[in-house]
């Protein structure tokens, strides 16, 4: 039996020696994306420690500080590096807090879509027959609607069910479910395809000959072997989910201005865009673009690294 | 050894059939006016295997030999017919589910050593899977020890338990596969082309290992192969399949020295001559017909040099002959010329 | 010079990030006009790689790192791509294991034949079409006049391999590289294809390099045979000698490992271990860890093929004078 420490060391030694790590270090673009993504995570989740101001602390907000430009513009101050918005909130700090909201909603939405999609995909692929047909036809129908429409639909339904008050309280959860529901199809399709390949492989048949029940085979043998492509989709979907959340917030059905995400900030800022206060919307917009680009590049790399044909 | 026990067949297969529906989806059938298409992959196969012996099924691709193997271990359910293991019919899935004890006594070795091991598991966990699943041993230390024993038994090192499948060569993986099969302490092993993906020198190792294990553990083998030389080496009895039917079976010596069925003769003729006796293979005209649309009567008749009108219309029944059985009108009518005496045999 | 193809000290390398793998190492062989040279070996022995190097179809990053390949005395291993393409098909034909991948599924087999013929031979379209039909008839395809208009998927496996042979012979090349031409086929079809290949090459005087792992196919087809192990030639010589009186301990073991009918043995001769991976080829003779007659020189010095009987064997025992090793 190995000691846990030795096991950990071996794990990292193997990881550092692996082909994936090698292909990672080969491209500076990928390394840069990883660093940018990591920086976003640190800034977002360490916002309460790093951010120069707390935009949610009403006591510190001063309306006299509203509409200050970035520090290099005339009238700007180094107290607010990227300027302030209409409420006098520091744009830089709001971006950090906003990224946190965006990332949390994105992550949870992707997790929800993944669980739903993987579960249905495994079921469809392994059981087959009528269950397979039903699940995949529902998926086909859903694919004919743009994801944003599905999300809007879910949001509308929940608004009707919960009432305005309840809806506002559960807004983040509603967003997560709305975005998750609009992206599960891709996971289900990919997983089903992989399952159809894996379930005819001889190691699965060997488990069946032992007498192992189907549920156990799916969990222990099939699932780990279909996770590769799922992780690729998840990474790329994270970027999509963040964009969808931003779109919803921009359209006003997302998070309220009191609890801003990047999308909400862009929305608030766009009304001042033509009156000269461009920084309120441009900086959150740039932050969103950079974050999405970095995550997307990571996803592309992961897809290529896991594809044996391209190696 | 008591005679009654030794002569008791461990497996009896009776009238085994398995049809596959390969029709287009319903909508396409309706729109394109097509009929259902059914492949009779296994179409009435009967044989029995005695305890401790090796029964081989040979035939060309698509003859249904692998389907028979998968039917016997329960990867497919039969369309009709019975599979009696130790006297109990475990053909229907419900019956099989009722007898996990019987299922536990059979195991399977697969053809592709690269697909038969889960790439994400350590070899030790792969081999321990049947032990853990059936709770043969509870204590992890005992399991590790047993895995080590099994690895040594198949000629690997107990230290290999920590490695992953990709660290092994094809032959070594096939050894792991055998160790996993042995872990459940089976008596009956179904081996589906266990060496056809391996190089000859490695094939010799695996065949030797399988023979050693059979002697030591008293195993019974059902051996599926397309390679007659390998079959000659490992078997006690040999069955020849063609398009889902067993056309001839016999004791090995008898089958190879005095093949009766024209198809068996054709297969023997087609074996490359390594002894350089100058014998030319007799190329046989034609190819295996599509199992979707098998010929009428004896399905071999379009390729058979001895076919007559009866062969085209009537399916020959399997008739017992000395040392075996054969399904051929020409044999029954005695119009088959004797088999040429071979220099090698 | 009757030597059609001459390969001298060929070396094929695969650069990888963990160092350079040598897939073919110092291989020298020749093929005379009209001769069938068998190349046998287990997977990874470098036999297919040698064939691919000769027709200039090494998959990158694989590359010829040394030695030379001469076709009728003219170097072809350093030709530019376009010049090599003119030689492929016209001078050297190729037959691969899987007939499905050798044929384009989107074109009728007749059109593929005509295209190959027109590329290499100065014929009119009508003559080329007539020749395509003639070729299909030569390879034993029934009613070739109709079959030229069929697509590859309409042929069975054996018939498809016949089409591939027709394609390889279309421009009457002097040499055909056949890489495992019968491996994907059933034994009864295998016999048909082998006898077809033998007959056609004999009739047209085409030389063949037959790459296979199947000693049986070699035994009934080849004039001479080269046995490869870990990227090198272990033994080369007339097929009778190599099969009946092998000199190299590896060939001895290989022959004993093949089960054969009428040979009633409880156990097959077994060479323990497996062929080394390309990144772990042992020092000295690559076969030394598995060799039953290994001695100290084998561990340090790599033997080159040296005269043994009617052929060559790369083994120090042979040089020691021990007429084939006791195993």
Describe the structure.
The complex is a heterotrimer of chains A (311), B (345) and C (327). By secondary structure, chain A is mostly helical. Chain A is 74% helix and 0% strand. Chain A contains 12 helices and no strands. In chain B, 34% of the residues lie in helices and 21% in strands. Chain B has an 8-stranded mixed β-sheet with strand order 6-7-8-3-9-10-12-11, with helices on both faces. The two termini of chain B are 32 Å apart. The model of chain B has no long low-confidence stretch (mean pLDDT 88). Chain C is an alpha/beta fold. Chain C has helices at 47-54, 81-90, 99-102, 109-120, 125-138, 144-147, 157-169, 187-204, 215-221, 239-244, 249-257, 296-300, 316-320; strands at residues 3-16, 19-32, 36-40, 63-71, 74-75, 92-95, 175-179, 207-212, 224-229, 232-238, 306-308, 311-313. In chain C, helix 4 crosses helix 5, helix 5 (125-138) crosses helix 7 (157-169) and helix 7 runs parallel beside helix 8 (187-204). The radius of gyration of chain C is 21 Å and the shape is globular. Chains in contact: A-B, B-C. At the B-C interface, helix 8, helix 9, helix 10 and helix 12 of B face helix 7, helix 8, helix 9, helix 10 and helix 11 of C.
């Amino acid at each position: 039996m190995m000691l846990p420490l030795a096991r950990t060391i071996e794990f990292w030694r193997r990881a550092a020696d692996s082909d994936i790590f090698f292909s990672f270090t080969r491209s500076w673009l990928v390394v840069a994306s990883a660093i940018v993504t990591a920086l976003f995570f640190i800034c977002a989740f360490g916002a309460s420690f790093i951010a120069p101001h707390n935009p949610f602390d009403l006591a510190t907000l001063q309306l006299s500080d509203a509409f200050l430009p970035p520090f290099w513009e005339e009238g700007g101050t180094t107290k607010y590096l990227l300027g302030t918005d209409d409420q006098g909130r520091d744009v830089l700090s709001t971006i950090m807090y906003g990224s946190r909201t965006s990332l949390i909603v994105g992550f949870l939405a992707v997790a929800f879509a993944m669980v739903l999609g993987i579960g249905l995909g495994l079921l469809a692929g392994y059981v087959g027959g009528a269950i397979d047909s039903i699940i995949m036809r529902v998926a086909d129908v859903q694919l004919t609607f743009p994801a944003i429409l599905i999300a809007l639909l879910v949001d509308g339904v929940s608004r009707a069910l919960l009432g305005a008050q309840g809806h506002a309280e559960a807004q983040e959860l509603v967003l997560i479910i709305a975005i998750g529901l609009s992206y599960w199809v891709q996971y289900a399709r990919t997983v089903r395809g992989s399952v159809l390949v894996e379930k005819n492989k001889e190691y699965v048949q060997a488990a069946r000959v032992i007498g192992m029940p189907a549920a156990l085979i799916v969990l222990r043998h099939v699932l780990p072997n279909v996770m590769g492509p799922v992780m690729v989709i998840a990474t790329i979907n994270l970027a999509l989910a963040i964009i969808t959340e931003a779109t919803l917030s921009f359209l006003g059905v997302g998070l309220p201005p009191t609890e801003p995400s990047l999308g909400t900030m862009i929305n608030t800022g766009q009304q001042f865009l033509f009156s000269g206060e461009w920084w309120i919307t441009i900086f959150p917009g740039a932050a969103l673009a950079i974050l999405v680009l970095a995550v997307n590049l990571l996803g592309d790399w992961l897809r290529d690294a896991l594809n044996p044909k391209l190696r | 050894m008591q005679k009654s026990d030794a002569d008791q067949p461990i497996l009896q297969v009776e009238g085994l059939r398995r049809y596959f529906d390969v029709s287009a989806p319903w909508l396409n059938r309706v729109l394109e006016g097509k009929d259902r298409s059914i492949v009779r992959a296994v179409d009435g196969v009967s044989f029995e295997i005695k305890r401790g012996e090796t029964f081989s099924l040979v035939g060309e691709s698509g003859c249904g030999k692998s389907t028979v193997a998968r039917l016997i271990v329960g990867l497919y359910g039969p369309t009709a017919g019975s599979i009696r293991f130790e006297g109990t019919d475990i053909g229907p899935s419900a019956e099989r589910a009722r007898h996990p004890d019987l299922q536990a006594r059979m195991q399977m070795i697969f053809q592709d050593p690269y697909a038969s091991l889960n790439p994400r598991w350590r070899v030790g966990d792969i081999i321990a899977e049947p032990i853990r699943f059936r709770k043969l041993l509870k204590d992890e230390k005992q399991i590790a020890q047993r895995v080590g024993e099994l690895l040594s038994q198949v000629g690997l090192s107990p230290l290999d338990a920590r490695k992953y499948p990709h660290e092994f060569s094809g032959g070594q993986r096939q050894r792991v596969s055998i160790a996993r099969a042995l872990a459940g302490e089976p008596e009956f092993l179904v081996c589906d082309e266990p060496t056809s993906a391996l190089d000859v020198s490695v094939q010799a190792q695996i065949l030797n290992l399988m023979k050693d294990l059979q002697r030591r553990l008293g195993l019974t083998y059902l051996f599926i192969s397309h390679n007659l030389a390998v079959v000659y080496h490992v078997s006690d009895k040999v069955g020849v399949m063609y398009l889902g039917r067993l056309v001839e079976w016999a004791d090995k010596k008898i089958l190879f020295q005095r093949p009766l069925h024209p198809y068996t003769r054709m297969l023997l003729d087609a074996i490359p001559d390594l002894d350089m006796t100058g014998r030319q293979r007799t190329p046989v005209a034609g190819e295996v017909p599509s199992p979707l649309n098998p010929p009428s009567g004896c399905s071999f008749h379009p390729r058979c040099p001895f076919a007559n009108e009866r062969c085209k219309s009537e399916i020959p029944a399997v008739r017992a002959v000395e040392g075996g059985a054969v399904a051929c009108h020409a044999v029954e009518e005695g119009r088959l010329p004797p088999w040429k005496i071979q220099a090698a045999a | 010079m009757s030597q059609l193809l001459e390969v001298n000290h060929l070396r094929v390398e695969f650069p990888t990030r963990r160092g350079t793998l040598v897939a073919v190492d110092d291989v020298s062989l020749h093929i005379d006009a009209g001769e069938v040279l068998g190349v046998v070996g287990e997977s990874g022995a470098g036999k297919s790689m040698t064939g691919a190097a000769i027709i200039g179809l090494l998959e990158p990053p694989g590359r010829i790192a040394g030695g030379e390949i001469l076709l009728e005395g003219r170097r072809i291993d350093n030709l530019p791509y376009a010049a090599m393409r003119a030689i492929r098909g016209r001078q050297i034909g190729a037959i691969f294991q899987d007939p499905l991948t050798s044929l384009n599924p989107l074109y009728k087999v007749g059109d593929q034949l005509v295209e190959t013929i027109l590329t290499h031979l100065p014929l009119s379209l009508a003559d080329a079409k007539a020749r395509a039909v003639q070729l299909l008839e030569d390879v034993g395809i029934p009613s070739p006049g109709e079959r030229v208009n069929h697509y590859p998927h309409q042929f069975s496996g054996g018939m498809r391999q016949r089409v591939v042979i027709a394609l390889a012979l279309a421009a009457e090349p002097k040499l055909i590289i056949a890489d495992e031409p019968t491996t994907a086929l059933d034994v009864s079809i295998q016999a048909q294809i082998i006898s077809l290949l033998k007959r056609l090459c004999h009739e047209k005087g085409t030389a063949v390099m037959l790459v296979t792992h199947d000693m049986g196919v070699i035994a009934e087809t080849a004039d001479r045979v080269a046995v490869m192990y870990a990227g090198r030639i272990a033994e080369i010589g007339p097929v009778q000698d190599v099969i009946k009186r092998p000199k190299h301990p590896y060939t001895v073991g290989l022959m004993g490992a093949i089960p054969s009918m009428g040979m009633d043995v409880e156990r097959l001769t077994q060479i323990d271990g497996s062929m080394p991976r390309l990144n772990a080829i042992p020092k000295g003779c690559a076969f030394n860890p598995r060799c039953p007659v290994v001695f100290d020189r084998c561990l340090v010095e790599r033997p080159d093929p040296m005269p043994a009987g009617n052929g060559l064997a790369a083994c120090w025992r042979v040089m020691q004078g021990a007429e084939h090793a006791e195993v």
